[in-house]
Design a protein that fits this description.
InterPro entries: Glyco_hydro_31_C, Glyco_hydro_b, Sulfoquinovosidase_GH31. This is Glycosyl hydrolase family 31 C-terminal domain-containing protein. Pfam families: Glyco_hydro_31_3rd (PF21365). The chain is an alpha+beta fold and about 110 residues long. It has a single domain (about 1-110), classed as Immunoglobulin-like. The protein has two helices and eight strands. It has helices spanning about 1-5, 100-110; strands at about 10-15, 35, 40, 50-55, 65, 70-75, 80-85, 90-95. The strands form two sheets. Strands 1-2-3-8-5-6 form a six-stranded antiparallel β-sheet, with no helix packed on it. Strand 2 and strand 3 (about 40) form a beta hairpin. The longest helix is centred in the last third of the chain and has 12 residues, at about 100-110.
Length: about 110
C-alpha cells in the first residue's frame, strides 16, 4: 500500500510492470497477477479445477515461496503446475521480501500456517 500511495502504482498489477523484458508475461492478461511487487497470485479460473499453471518470470532475483507449502520455486522463466484447492489459493511470496516475511509471520501467529 505504501508503494502504491507514494508512486501511484495500482496494488494489483500485471507482471509486465515489474518484468518488462520477459516477453512471456505479455501474454498473461488475466491468468496471474502481482499484489505489489512481492506477491504472485495465480487464481483458479475454471470450475472444479484444483491445480493451476503458474509462470515464474525472468528477473533479477525472482525466487518465490509457495505460502501454503513453503516450497521454493527458483527456476526463472518456467511454468509449473501448482495445487490450488478451495481455501488454499496459489499465492507466492518473493524470496527475501521484508513485507512477505511479515505477512507469513502474521499467518503463522494466527495459526493459519
Amino acid at each position: 500500500m505504501e508503494e502504491a500511495s507514494q508512486k501511484g502504482l495500482p496494488v494489483c498489477r500485471h507482471l509486465f510492470l515489474h518484468y518488462p523484458t520477459d516477453e512471456r508475461v505479455q501474454h498473461l492478461s488475466y491468468q496471474q497477477f502481482l499484489v505489489g511487487s512481492e506477491f504472485l497470485v495465480v487464481p483458479v479460473l475454471d470450475k472444479g479445477k484444483r491445480k493451476v499453471k503458474a509462470y515464474f518470470p525472468l528477473g533479477e532475483s525472482s525466487s518465490w515461496v509457495h505460502i501454503w507449502t513453503g516450497k521454493v520455486l527458483s527456476k526463472q522463466g518456467s511454468e509449473e503446475w501448482v495445487e490450488a484447492p478451495i481455501g488454499y489459493p496459489a499465492v507466492f511470496v518473493k524470496v527475501g521480501s521484508h513485507v512477505g516475511e511479515i505477512f507469513l509471520n502474521n499467518l503463522r501467529s494466527l495459526g493459519i500456517l
